[in-house]
Write a structure and sequence with these properties.
Elements: E1 2-8, H1 12-22, E2 27-34, H2 41-54, E3 61-63, H3 77-80, H4 102-112, E4 117-121, H5 126-134, E5 142-148, H6 163-167, H7 169-176, E6 182-185, H8 187-190, E7 194-196, H9 197-206, H10 209-225, E8 238-240, H11 244-251, E9 256-265, E10 276-279, E11 290-296, H12 298-313
Parallel strand pairs: 1-2, 1-4, 2-3, 4-5, 5-6, 6-11
Antiparallel strand pairs: 7-8, 9-10, 9-11
The protein binds beta-D-ribofuranose and calcium ion (CA).
Residues 8-9, 11, 13-14, 37-38, 122-123, 243 line the site of calcium ion.
Length: 315
C-alpha cells in the first residue's frame, strides 16, 4: 500500500478527489485535514466529515488553520455554492472531528511512520506551510507533495494566478522553498482533465444515489463556473476535475507527463501576486524543485474516475 495524507478544502472537485482515493485500497489514507479555501473552515471541515462518513470510511479528519497566513480569506462560493458542494446534501456526519489539530496530526503521523508518506494537497497550502515551518523535522518523512495548484501559463483568479496559490501565496512560498519534492498539477494539466456534459449522462446512468449526487455536483460546477472568472477560452462543455489529478498522479503517474524545473511563488507583484513563476527556460539557474505536469491521458483518467464512482456507489 501507498501511505498518504490528504489536505483539502472540500469543495466539489475535492470530494471527487476523495472519491478516487477511497475507491483504491492500495492507498492507505492515514489522515484527512482541511482548511478554508473553496468555503470557510467551518464548511470545509463539515463537508470532509460528512463525506467521509457517507463513504463509510473510518479515517481521522482534523481541522486546520482557519485563515491564510496574511491574506484576507477569499472563498469560491460562486463556484462551489453556499454549502461548498453545489447544494448537494450528505447526511449528518457520524465521524467525530479529531481532537488533534491538522498540524499536530500531520506531524505526529509523519514522525511515527516507518515509511515515507505522500502528502496530497488540493487546497491552499496553509496547513502544509505551517507544518513545514513549525516542524521541519518532518521533511524527510514526506516522499513528495502531490499538489493541485498553480499554473505555468494562465490563471483562473487573475490573468496569471490560480485559486489555491492566490488564496495563500505565503504558505505556498514556504512549501515551494522547503526542499520537499513537489509534483504540481497546475491548470496546465487540470484544464485537460475534464469531463464533458455528455459524459455526465454516463455518470447518471450508473444509477446509484451516489452517482446522481456526483452528476448534480458536476452540473452545478459547470453552471456556476461559466458565470465566473473560471470561464476561459475553450471552456465550453468541459468540467475540469482539477483536484482529481493530484490523487490520480499518485495512483497512475504513467498517465501524466511533465518537466522538472524551478518554480517560485510571486508574493508582491503589482499584477501577478499569487502566480507560480515556472522557469521553463532555466533563466534562474536555480535547482529544480517541482515536476510541473502538463499532459494527462484523458480517456484513461476519465475511466479511472468513472470506475471510482461505480465502486463507491456500491458501499
Ligand atoms: C482549485 O481551486 C478550487 O476551487 C478547486 O477545488 C481546485 O482545488 C482549482 O483552481
Ligand atoms: Ca480544492
Amino acid at each position: 500500500t501507498i501511505p498518504v495524507i490528504i489536505d483539502c478544502d472540500p469543495g466539489i472537485d475535492d470530494v471527487m478527489a476523495l472519491t478516487l482515493a477511497f475507491a483504491h485500497p492500495e492507498l492507505d489514507i492515514k489522515l484527512i485535514t482541511t482548511e478554508p479555501g473553496n468555503q470557510t473552515q467551518e464548511k470545509t471541515i463539515y463537508n470532509a466529515l460528512a463525506f467521509t462518513s457517507y463513504m463509510k470510511k473510518n479515517i481521522e479528519v482534523a481541522k486546520g488553520l482557519d485563515k491564510p497566513f496574511f491574506r484576507k480569506l477569499e472563498i469560491a462560493d460562486e463556484v462551489h455554492g453556499e454549502n461548498g458542494l453545489g447544494d448537494v446534501q450528505f447526511p449528518e456526519p457520524t465521524l467525530q472531528l479529531s481532537n488533534r489539530t491538522a498540524v499536530e496530526a500531520m506531524k505526529e503521523t509523519l514522525l511515527l511512520s516507518d515509511e515515507q508518506i505522500i502528502l496530497i494537497a488540493t487546497g491552499p497550502l496553509t496547513n502544509v506551510g505551517a507544518l513545514l515551518l513549525a516542524h521541519p523535522e518532518v521533511k524527510s518523512k514526506i516522499k513528495y507533495i502531490s499538489y493541485m495548484g498553480g499554473a505555468a501559463v494562465g490563471g483562473n483568479m487573475s490573468p496569471t494566478a490560480e485559486f489555491n496559490v492566490y488564496v495563500d501565496p505565503h504558505a505556498a512560498d514556504i512549501v515551494f522553498r522547503s526542499g520537499v519534492p513537489i509534483v504540481m498539477s497546475g491548470l496546465d494539466v487540470t484544464h485537460k482533465a475534464y469531463v464533458t456534459i455528455e459524459e455526465l449522462d454516463e455518470i447518471e446512468a450508473i444509477g446509484t444515489e451516489f452517482a446522481l449526487k456526483v452528476a448534480t455536483m458536476l452540473r452545478f460546477y459547470i453552471h456556476t463556473a461559466k458565470q465566473t472568472a473560471f470561464h476561459t477560452p475553450n471552456f465550453e462543455g468541459q468540467i475540469r476535475l482539477h483536484d482529481l489529478c493530484a490523487v490520480s498522479y499518485v495512483l497512475t503517474p504513467e498517465l501524466f507527463s511533465g518537466d522538472d524545473c524551478h518554480v517560485a511563488v510571486e508574493l508582491e507583484g503589482r499584477l501577478t501576486s499569487g502566480t507560480t513563476v515556472v522557469d521553463y527556460s532555466q533563466r534562474t539557474g536555480l535547482p529544480h524543485n517541482v515536476k510541473v505536469l502538463h499532459t494527462v491521458h484523458r480517456e484513461k483518467f476519465l475511466e479511472q474516475f468513472l470506475n471510482a464512482v461505480k465502486i463507491m456507489g456500491q458501499q
